[in-house]
Specification:
Heterohexamer. It is found in: Mitochondrion inner membrane. Helix 1 runs antiparallel to helix 2. This protein is mostly helical. The model has no long low-confidence stretch (mean pLDDT 85). Helix content is 67%, strand content 0%. The chain contains 2 helices and no strands.
Length: 89
């Protein structure tokens, strides 16, 4: 086994089961989605709310960022529900 390989996740010599692999992929996708979401929110809300960067946020900047993040989370929830309900069953 090379130093970059992981040992098999299951006890068999054949390697991990499809279920284990799918769970790992789902976990990695969820992590990537969360990182992308927070990066986007951070960048957009900072650009919108912080006009003159300094060592600390003013009260209005802090309130703006809070409202901005809340709106992004709410919008993401609405979009997610719409997509899920439109999927064929």
């Amino acid at each position: 086994m090379d130093p970059f390989s992981s040992p098999p996740l299951s006890g068999s010599a054949e390697g991990p089961s499809n279920e284990v692999v799918m769970d790992k992929v789902k976990q990695q996708l969820a992590q990537a989605y969360a990182e992308e979401f927070f990066s986007t929110v951070r960048d957009k809300c900072f650009t919108k709310c912080v006009t003159k960067p300094s060592t600390s946020l003013s009260g209005s900047e802090s309130s703006c960022i809070s409202r901005c993040v809340e709106r992004y989370i709410e919008a993401t929830g609405i979009i997610s529900r719409a997509v899920i309900t439109s999927l064929p069953r």
